[in-house]
Model the fold of this input.
Amino acid sequence: MEKGKGRKNLIIMILAVLAAVVIVAAATAFCMSNREHKSEPPVAVGHGSENPAAGGLVVDTRATDGQAAELEADPLAGRNVYFSGIEDASIGPETVVQLDNRAENLDFLLRYEVYDSEGCLVFETGLIPSGQHVDWVPGETLGAGEHDLSFLQIPYYPDGDGGYIGLTQGSCQTTLAILD
Amino acid sequence: MRNRIMAALLTAAALLQGGMTAAAQEYTTEGTAECKISCQVTSTYTVSIPAAVGLTYTAEDGTASGTFQVGVKGDLLLNQMVQVEPTHLSVELSRGTNGDYLNGKLTGENTGASLPVTVNMSKTRWYPGGTTPLFDMGEYVEISPTEYVYAAGTVTTWEVDDADTYAGTLVFTFGVEEYEKKNLP
Done:
């Protein structure tokens, strides 16, 4: 008699635990479903590809924040070009002048044209990537003596289609005295 | 022998002045005292200039204008200053009054029309603090060795007659100049 009563209590306890598990699972599923509904993006009627699941409501493809559109329209907005200044110096015939493109210039490329006081081109480089430099030995190009030089630095922005957009230029005025 | 060594050292000292750094020194002491020196000239200051200056058209007066910031950073001697000036906008600019640089021009991409432009930059000189120039150098900016210090400028077109996209290349000329100074009390 006692044994049968104990078995009955055990069965009731198991059923109660199972019922509790089912209730918790159902409540969790309900909460998850509700959260998914709430996280769906707001929709607007109008332009864009229609999503049947949204009941005829579609995301407006014209929607944008102004800042992103502006940056996309002008990738140079707010960007600076950094030019190295070269001071007047007395140098030997083998002294190297580093014509660099500063690392700060990132994707900007830079080339140099060096002119003497009469406007004659005495040296030029190709495009120099940022963080790199081209060495120039003025003593190999110019004779001994004092030379007023213009280091015209011409930066470019690669437009992604194989072309280059010219940017604001800097011209460094320097006097180099090349010793004999 | 001793004199030759002294002469070589003096030559080395002379070559190393003026912002140069020695890259390598090789001494050969076989027979005669010779000193072979190679040097590199590197930058001591940097100029920061906007990559492009965009102009905004104003319908009220029919002109377009834009602003820019020029920055300089560097470690100068006390009697040196860096001067940065706008000197070309497609053509050579002539200097007007009150920091105006006149007679630049932009060119219309479709019409080829020429649009006159004025560039204004009132502060064009950066110099180390603690000194005052003896001559009137106008407005100036104190330079910092660690961060860029900026001065502002504007670009303004004359009245735009033909609708078009106008463009031109702006060139800033810069360099170090020496000046006489007096020490502040």
Observations:
- Chain A touches chain B at residues 74, 76-77, 79-92, 94-98, 100, 102, 108, 135, 150, 152, 155, 157, 166-174, 176, 179 (CB under 8 Å).
- Residues 2-38 of chain A form the longest helix (37 residues).
- Chain A has three helices and nine strands.
